[in-house]
Amino acid sequence: MNAVETLAKHAAPGGRPQPLAFHDGMLWVGCWDEARLYALDPASWTVREDVALPGKPYGIAPFEGALRIVIPLGDDDRYLYRFVPGRPLDEADRVACPQLTGSHLAANGSSLYLVQQSNRRIVQIDAKGESAREIPLATRCGGLGFANGRAYVLAADADFDVVEFASLDLDAQAPTPTTLAPMDVEARALAYDGTAWWTSHRETNEIVRFRVEPPRS
User: What domains does the chain contain, in order, with CATH numbers?
Assistant: First the structure.
């Protein structure tokens, strides 16, 4: 099996970081404890923007020139907010997630992909939150991201005692994750910067940059 090489490890800008996304050269990090979104310069690790949110962020993805953020309201009903960096968050600029549920979020081309953990599936949706396809998940999912058009997940067992970095063929009718490397059990969320991956270690308040290396002979 491949091995994970840790390239960098940083303190999170807030407590219990989860969703991550790259947009316009910034690494955007959502933190649960403060219900805030931070834009970080990945080179200097300085905060460039700090945005208050109406609830803790579960997923973030860049899409159509803005960020889309999964945020719960009321009785944990999940909504997809549209946020343009450099402007105040418009709390009216939102649509309901399908079945009012969803967490990890990723974008590829003209579609968003929303993990619905309780329904054990990924839903392909458009900007209006309308579902185009439901993709069953064979495992629990701690994160979803795309690199070079291919989907990758943090596949986990029922209690997140085992977490693995895996590829996922979304064109398959019932895709099964192909394990590439074991991950720290604290890993949540995935974001790709063009050369390496980033993940959150939520309960230890760390952001980790890593890559997957083949086994040495």
Answer: 3-213 (2.120.10.30)
